[in-house]
Design goal:
The chain is of the alpha/beta class. About 35% of the residues lie in helices and about 20% in strands. The chain contains eight helices and nine strands. Helix 2 crosses helix 3, helix 5 packs parallel to helix 6 and helix 7 packs across helix 8. It is globular.
Length: about 260
């Protein structure tokens, strides 16, 4: 594999950046997406760690950006491996066609996991597994026969073989806090030979040592330390004093 040493360690990142090579028209919906506004102002976003987290409030464009990177890298917009044949979502493909990925190598494996369409991806696997041979790569049991959280972890633990590029959109969506820690351990395992770019709302996952955390706010994308992120600060404030936060929140609701 390009960039791999004798011990199987990845010496280079597969993707070191995403460049907005073709800016959208001013009246395009894309031009109003905060993440795209950042790219319009700065031209590109760099990836310089094995694991990159994209965090921020709803609507800042985390999933839009991640989907575009995935499609530009050859994955279907609905999620899956490069071998999946999707229906083609015009929104993600529109931004993807305007991005140029800066490649440093080509992975042996890869997968785009997105929470919102995971059921469709699991169904695709079953529909193309008449002899029940394909499911062996996913733990030997149909993903549709497992709980949402179980199927997520089964996919990561069995299908993600390493030496790959893995793009994950809100992988914590179906996971309990304990299972999020299990997922963090799997991400750490994969990072030894792989690159992962992950959009998440989890204040737990972004604590992974050595990861790059990009916090997206307004039209800005800034690298933050774990404890400087709004996710961490809000979670800590709530866990330190839930009564105070709830009192303030509920009092505000009653005043409205």
């Amino acid at each position: 594999m390009p960039g791999a040493g004798r011990e199987g360690r990845m010496e280079e990142l597969y993707l070191s950046g995403a460049v907005l090579a073709d800016p959208p028209e001013a009246d395009s919906w894309l031009a109003g997406v905060p993440a795209v506004k950042y790219l319009l102002a700065h031209g590109s976003l760099s990836f310089h760690r094995r694991v990159t987290f994209l965090v921020g409030e709803n609507g800042v464009g985390k999933s839009t950006l991640l989907e575009a990177v995935a499609v530009a890298a050859g994955f279907p917009a609905e999620g899956g491996s490069r071998n999946f044949s999707g229906t083609g979502r015009p929104d993600g493909s529109d931004l993807a066609g305007r991005l140029r990925l800066v490649r440093r190598g080509y992975p042996e494996d890869g997968f785009f996991l997105r929470a919102e369409s995971f059921y469709d991806a699991a169904g695709y696997i079953d529909d193309h597994d008449e002899d029940h041979l394909l499911r062996n790569s996913y733990g030997g049991r149909s993903l549709l026969e497992q709980s949402h959280g179980e199927s997520f972890l089964s996919l990561v633990q069995n299908r993600f073989r390493g030496h790959g590029l893995y793009l994950l959109d809100e992988p914590e969506a179906a996971l309990s806090p304990l299972r999020q820690l299990t997922l963090m351990a799997e991400i750490s395992r994969l990072a030894a030979t792989s690159q992962l770019i992950i959009a998440t709302h989890s204040p737990m996952l972004i604590a992974l040592p050595g990861a790059c955390v990009y916090e997206m706010s307004g039209a800005e994308i800034q690298e933050r330390s774990y404890r400087d992120t709004a996710h961490y600060q809000l979670a800590r404030a709530f866990l330190d004093s839930p009564e105070r936060i709830l009192r303030q929140l509920l009092d505000e609701d009653q005043e409205k």
